[in-house]
Amino acid sequence: MSEPRASAGPKPAVARAESPESRPSESKTRVAAQRAAAARPRGRPDAMHRAQLLAWAPVLFQAAWVLRERGLLRELIARVAQGASVDELATATDTSPYGVTVLLEAGLATDLVVQQEGRFRPTALAYLVERDPMTRANMNFVQDVCYRAMGHLGEAIASGKPAGLAELGPWSTVYAGLAELGEPARTSWLEFDHFYSDDSFPLVLPQVFSSRPARVLDVGGNTGKFALACLGYDPDVRITVADLPGQLESCRREVEQAGDGRRVSYHPVDLLALDAALPAGHDVIWMSQFLCCFSEVEVVHILRLARSVMGPATRLLIMDNFWDRQQTRAAEVVLQAASLYFTCVANGNSRLYDSGTLRRCVERAGLEIVDERHGVGLGHSLLECRGAPGAATGAAPGGR
Ligand SMILES: C[S@@+](CC[C@H](N)C(=O)[O-])C[C@H]1O[C@@H](n2cnc3c(N)ncnc32)[C@H](O)[C@@H]1O
User: Which ligand 1 atom is at minimum distance from the Cα of 251?
Assistant: First the structure.
């Protein structure tokens, strides 16, 4: 079970331990040991050190999570100038001194805190865990969506099924259950998903609208964020959102709440169903953070469905994150790790692709990439595709 999000917890039942400062006989040795520890060079961990961080990663992750959720990191940051003692943190966060001690010592192991003369201070890492929006979105997603599920990873690999999803609900894929996902998993799922795409939408809208499309089809439109962004960008454009029926209802609610339903229509569809089809007559087909939800064979199938409703002037825009196109190792790590969510929770057979794999899928579907941009927002790539010459064409949409 997740720890409660609020930092207030029940009063500790254990008696307060004597504070380290109140035991002078030990203090000299302790201070000397602490100084030595603080002075130890803290460069890149060696292989054995990394092996132990990996061996204990799930335990240390939970410690960081509780340090954040009980407000200990917040209090450490508030007291950064003078440092904080165990007792001060215990009082400020309504946590037992024993609890504070073990959490802080785990924080020493992960370099979240440093200790000097009985007082603890936050490191740069602590600031990121407490305040960095990406780290928060990722940690919430890992805790609320992935953590328990990941115990089933071996089974997911062996079966090709999202074996961990049973920890969240009885669905065959996470998408079938998105509309019914319980809390806090649903909020963390949506915040994770939106975190990466929200920043990129404004950056790509000029390219989406460069051909002045009259009609845009958003495939996998989720909660309608892109549809709403398009309506705000262009006063005349009409949007069709295609998604699974349950998710489409959430989308309709969001769009109607925003008061802009007249220019939006909905196309309920399971794109993996045998009779699945996409609606014709759109100038732009948009797929954002969507193809990563499908296996390579399914990606080709879906792209062929799109291809079949594209005329010579129809533009297909694909926005996704490719781990081989990231500018930092941190961004690569996020994508390489997040792939396992698809393996174990989402559907058992998809991943966050590298750019070469997706390019091959595009070509196999009878499309060609006519333009590509990388490094959009927090590491998105934008591929603009057209029907490849010689490949079958579908109905030609109208422009304006
Ligand atoms: C990761 S979300 C993408 C959200 C959004 N496009 C964005 O950029 O934030 C994937 C979307 O694909 C939809 N989806 C998944 N499987 C589908 C299927 N078989 N048919 C239609 N839509 C599907 C999900 O319901 C979800 O809305």
Answer: 27
Peptide bond preceding 202 in cis form (omega within 30 of 0): no
Distance 290 CA to ligand 1 centre (A): 5
Cα 79 to ligand 1 centre (Å): 44
**What's the predicted TM-score (pTM) here?**
0.84
Q: Ligand 1: distance of its center to the CA of 135 in Å?
A: 23
Residue 272 Cα: closest atom of ligand 1 = 19
Cβ-in-10-Å burial (0-12, 13-18, 19+) of 99 comes to buried
Ligand 1 centroid to 243 CA: how many Å? 6
Ramachandran angles phi, psi of 268, nearest 5°: -70, 130
Report d(CA 115, CA 244) in Å as an integer: 52
140 CB under 6 A from ligand 1?
no
Question: How far is 354 from 295, CA to CA, in rounded Å?
Answer: 13
For ligand 1, whether the C-beta of 141 sits within 6 Å is no
Contact between residue 294 and residue 350 where contact means Cβ atoms under 8 Å apart: yes
Look up residue 291 and give its DSSP letter: G
For the chain, list the domains and their CATH numbers: 20-131 (1.10.10.10), 192-387 (3.40.50.150)
Q: Is 269 in the pocket of ligand 1 (CB under 6 A)?
A: yes
CA of 218 to the centre of ligand 1 (A): 10
Q: Is the CB–ligand 1 distance for residue 346 below 6 Å?
A: no
Ligand 1 atom nearest to 270, measured from its CA: 20
What is the chain's pLDDT, residue by residue, as a tens digit (400 residues)? 344 443 333 332 222 233 333 344 555 455 455 545 544 556 778 999 999 999 999 999 999 999 999 999 999 999 999 999 999 999 999 999 999 999 999 999 999 999 999 999 999 999 999 999 999 999 999 999 999 999 999 999 999 999 999 999 999 999 999 889 999 999 999 999 999 888 899 999 999 999 999 999 999 999 999 999 999 999 999 999 999 999 999 999 999 999 878 999 999 999 999 999 999 999 999 999 999 999 999 999 999 999 999 999 999 999 999 999 999 999 999 999 999 999 999 999 999 999 999 999 999 999 999 999 999 998 999 999 999 987 655 444 433 4
284-288 and 215-219: which strand pairing?
parallel
Regarding the beta carbon of 382 and ligand 1, being less than 6 Å apart is answered no
